[in-house]
Design a protein that fits this description.
single chain, about 100 residues, 3-stranded antiparallel beta sheet, 4 helices, about 15% strand
Length: about 100
């Protein structure tokens, strides 16, 4: 536990967005702080929409920091399905999957 604890504490202290602002990290959801926007490299945040349920959106779009960001809103169920497929693919054919990385 010792090394992992100190590594994570350092990550939390140094967790800054593209604009240099410190961003908080919550370990409540596994993908918080891990999922990044392909458009602007900011983190994604989990939010609730009445009509769609839980979705993940780029923080810069939520806070209107970067109006040019084209990061997509991702439905949480689709995100989970995609992750499950990737894990399954990795377990079935590790060599092929690692070559893609």
């Amino acid at each position: 536990m010792g090394d992992t604890y100190f590594i994570n504490q350092a990550r939390i202290r140094n967790n800054k967005g593209k604009n240099g602002r410190k961003q908080t990290y919550s370990s409540r959801y596994a993908l918080t702080g891990v999922s990044k926007c392909g458009g602007c490299s900011e983190s994604y945040r989990r939010i609730y929409w009445k009509d769609r349920g839980f979705v993940w959106r780029c923080i810069s779009r939520l806070d209107k920091r970067n109006r040019d960001c084209r990061g997509r809103t991702v439905d949480e169920q689709k995100l989970h399905s995609g992750i499950a497929r990737a894990i399954t693919q990795f377990l079935v054919d590790k060599e092929k999957f690692l070559k893609q990385l």
